[in-house]
User: What shape does this take?
Amino acid sequence: MAFILKKAAISALVALGLFFLMIGIRTEAGSSGQLIYWTRFGELAAMVGAVFAGSIVIELLRRWIGPVGGVELPAGVRATFATLGRLLAPALLIFALLVPVIFYKERYLLDLGILVLTYVMLGWGLNIVVGLAGLLDLGYVAFYAVGAYSYALLAQSPLPLPHLVDGFPFVAFSMEQLGPWAFWVLLPVSGLLAALWGVILGFPVLRLRGDYLAIVTLAFGEIIRLVILNWQDLTGGPNGISGIPRPTVFGIPLTPGEHGFAAMIGVPFSPTHRLVFLFYLILALALLTNWATIRLRRLPIGRAWEAMREDEVACRALGINITTTKLSAFAIGAMFGGFAGAFFATRQGFISPESFTFQESALVLAIVVLGGMGSQLGVALAAIAMIGGFELFRGLDQFRMLVFGGVMVLLMIWRPRGLIGHRAPTVFLQKRTEISSSLVKEGHG
Amino acid sequence: MTTEAPILAIDRLTMRFGGIVAVNELSFTAGRRQITALIGPNGAGKTTVFNCITGFYRPSSGVMQLVHDDGAAFRLDRLHDFRICKYAKVARTFQNIRLFPGMTALENLMVAQHNTLMRASGFSLLGLLGAPSFRAAERAAIDFARHWLERIGLTERADDAAGNLPYGDQRRLEIARAMCARPALLCLDEPAAGLNANESAALSELLLSIRDDVGTSILLIEHDMSVVMEISDHIVVLDHGVKIADGAPRAVRDDPKVVAAYLGADEEDAAQVMEGGA
Ligand SMILES: Nc1ncnc2c1ncn2[C@@H]1O[C@H](COP(=O)(O)OP(=O)(O)OP(=O)(O)O)[C@@H](O)[C@H]1O
Ligand SMILES: [Mg+2]
Assistant: This one.
């Protein structure tokens, strides 16, 4: 008890020091420019008192909650939780598949669903770099931007590919000839270009660790954005690029015309069709990311990523090439960011540097951290919670960020290791036992 | 004593850190299919020698040559980093255990087979597609890991996180992990540190079986003289980065210079040297 009081008193003292000038004295410029000030010791006392009481409450809560976390739940309850946990992922997937059916009439919700899935995909992509390989990347949005601009620029350029061989149909075409196939041809191209940039970023940061790596990746993200912003001739600068080709159902455009998809399957045209198609498209892309990640984790490359996160020195002693391992993590993570970027461009039909600010990187990283680093399900849940929650609090106007930040802080206190706080082994002899994430390293490089 | 050519020959190895000369003109050889112990008081430079051999430090000068059974020769002083394990087949353990704590014991052993599996997975492409050839390679890798888990008596705990294992098990797991890299030379940095008498005895047995059954040559840093005297074929003594003795265990134990070095360093160590193996 004395300890709690002491701690609260210290907090109150700090608050007093902080608030004395900020709240205790109010200054204002008078009518003729002279300084008017008056004291507000009442408010100051109230603030300090609130801090004192608040820290006692928090300390008591911590004592009360602390041991509860360590208590073993009864076996039955735990088994139920485990079953629910196992069913959660398939249930989410089925729900996602049904969203366009259930909410067909609600364009707003469909749009929100597409947005959430975009972030799920970005989260899963970044999870390879941060969660598996343990490389703290604060500039992930750069790859998103590279993907988006690659698609937008290539799809619009009049003749980017020279006629290499006259009369040889496979190489002699321009991008315009792609016509309705533009998206499907350029999607992989955008991903590969983003992967290339992943490698380009990877090289200079190979020897960097922790904070230094974070700073350089952050700078990289800004550099890409600033280049896009200032290279007016190519990217249109702050005006962005508009008129980006819309996606087609494998060559069939989603337009009202005779050759449109609606006419093809014999239903009246509705703009919602495109929304539904975009929804399934991003769902498929996200699931592809998920599938590849789960697959890669069980391959030697994925195990090397995780081993590198755990102990880089031991990896080198076991003959693992850290350079290629790091670069492959950057490249593959970036590739999925690039896919997501191309999708973003085709969905919006318009892109500008404003969509690729540091805030996006921070948001995606927050999703990964909140989800529980390395956990696929956790990242999906976190994306739903973050993006969905963001929309949920829309009614709160200017308090939205405050509430949102508060909820984030509380969540991280409650689950410091993220929503899904354990790691599933990639291979097992007798039985798959989850590994508590207190053992799992967060990586340093 | 066999007449086989030594697996590792070190010639005038020197390692300087700024003004400190941690290893000074050290020359010795490690016998093929033998256990060579590297001993010496604290700070003698033993770990530094290991770091040079395994590519963590670039030696200031000197030549280190490793020759495989098939005659392939590697200049370790010119090979660096992961290549020493990958090509020259030198695996090591660390003075402070360096397992992958958040991965299971089995996974630790799988990571050690990275290069073999990587090739089998077609650098991940075949693996992504689930090619049968990769599946077979992975099964073989799991079997090899299982074999080593059995050897160190950890089959039961194969699926537990390495960080959750008791200290002695972690030490043995680290040795098994190094063995899963299929080394020609195994370098162990104080594997008996922190083990009790029973565990030390089991460790001696394990090392002898690695030498005799697997045919791997071992380079061993160890302070526990009972282990050193019992299992080494050959001992090299280092003090202040300089070799002060080199020979069979009995001869080294009775060498007055060795006794003096240990006396100068630490009474307890000296007593151990003289008692060890007696
Ligand atoms: N990276 C380094 N930078 C500077 N000095 C170093 C470095 N590594 C080792 N040394 C110095 O080299 C000397 C030998 O150290 P080393 O760790 O090789 O000793 P050791 O024989 O392994 O001792 P111990 O029995 O305590 O493990 C010490 O004086 C140490 O301070
Ligand atoms: Mg040492």
